[in-house]
Amino acid sequence: MQQRPSCLIVDDETDIRELLAMTLERMDVETYSASSLEEAKAMLKQRSYALCLTDMQMPNGTGLDLVNYINEFHLGLPVAVITAHASADNAVSALKAGAFDYLAKPISLKQLRPVIESALKLSARTAQNTPNTLEMIGNSEQIQYVRNMIAKVSRSQAPVYISGESGSGKELAAKLIHQNSSRADGAFIAVNCGAIPENLMESEFFGYKKGAFTGANQDKEGLFQAANGGTLFLDEVADLPLAMQVKLLRAIQEKKVRMVGGTNEDAVDVRIISATHKNLTEMMDTGQFRKDLYYRLNVIQLKMPALRCRPTDIPLLTEMLLNKLCQAQDIATPKIDAKAHTYISSLAFPGNVRELENMLERALALCDGETINVEDVLTEGSLDAPTNIPNVMFDSHHSNEINLTDYLEEVEKKAIIQALDKTNNNKTAAAKLLGVTFRTLRYRLAKLGLTKDSDPDLESDAEDH
Description:
CATH superfamily of the largest domain: P-loop containing nucleotide triphosphate hydrolases
Structural class: alpha/beta
Distance between the termini: 79 Å
Number of domains: 4
Strand content: 5-15%
Number of strands: 16
Shape: elongated
Radius of gyration: 28 Å
Helix content: 40-55%
Number of helices: 19
CATH architecture of the largest domain: 3-Layer(aba) Sandwich
C-alpha cells in the first residue's frame, strides 16, 4: 500500500489549522499541526513531510523565519506561506526567501487545491528525476550558472524575470523552467506582448463573454485561462501599455481574472515568467513601466549572457544548430572547416544565438553540400569581425596597448574596407553587403575617419536610392 503524503500545518489559530487539516484530509493528505515556530522546528526533526503550510504572522516569529530554517536544514521541502489579504509585500518577500508559493487570506479551496497539488507533484518529481537542462548548450561558466539557476527556480512557483539581449535564449530558458517544474504536465503559453494591438489586450489576456462587444458571438477564454495549471511566458513585457500593466498586476496578485463582459472573477493557477531585452529600470525612472508590477515580476531574476561573452560555447552551438537545420531540411550535415570555425568564433554576434542560426542557414544554402568554408559564412551582415587582425584583446603582451573601443573600431574598419574592395568602392553595394543602410555606412565612414576631409558626407542622398 502506497504511503500517503503528509503536510505540516503551522498556524497559531486553532480554527485555521483545523480548516486546513479538514481540506487536506479530503485530498488524501495526512496532516500534522504546530501552533508555534519552535513546535514546528521540533516536528520537522521528528519526521519528513511532502509539504509545509505556514502562516506569515505568529507570536514568536514569522513565516519567513520558518522558510529560512527549512531552506537551511530541510532543503527540498516545499513551503507555502499564508499571508494577510492583499499583503503583496509579504507575498513577494516570502517568494524571494525561497517559499514555494503563497496563499492570501481568506483562503479559498479553489486557490488552496492547486498549490497543494503542485507541491505534491514537485516532491514526487524531485524524488524521481534530476533536472534536464541539456538543451542549454555550452560548457562556459556563464551557461553553467544559467543551468544551475534553471534547476533552482524550477522548484518554486515564484515569478521569474529573464533579462538579456535579443536572441540570447530567453524563451528557451523559460521553457526549461516550465519543463523541469511541477507544472510540466500543464500548458506552456508564450505571448509576445508587443504583437497584440492595445485595444485587444484585455480580451486576449483574460478572454471575453458572448455579447461583450461586436463580433463576440461566443465565450472565448484568454491566455490566463489557457495557461491554467501551467506557465504563461510574457515575452517583451516592456511593451505592455500602462493601462494593461495595472490589470496584469491585479491578476498576478489576486490569482483571479475577470473576462471582458463578465461579472465574476475566476481563480487561475498560472506561473508567470516574463522577459525583455529593454532596460526596465530606465523605463521605471521615466514612468513607462510600473514599479509595483516590476517588483511583482522580478521576484527571481535570470540574466542570459550574450553569445560574445561565452566564445568557448560558439563551436558547440554551431554544430548543434547546423545539425538541427539539416534535420529539418532532411539533408546530410556538411562539415565546417577549421578556418570557418575560427572565423565564426571571432564574431561579435550582436544578434546572439539567433544571428548565429541565421548565418548557418545562409551558409547551408551557399555551400557545396559537403563543406562550409569561410567564403560561405562571409555573407551579408557577417563582416563585422576580424579575419587577419591579431587577437590583441586576449594577448597578455598587448593588454595595456589597446582598449575595447579601439579594438572594435579596427575590426569595423577592416570589415568596411573589405566590403568596399569587393564592390569596387560602390558604397551602396557595400552597405548592402554589410547589411546596413547607406546612411549608416556613410555615418560610420565619417566616424571612423575613412572619408575625404573635404567631403565628409562622401556622396549625395541620391545614391541612397
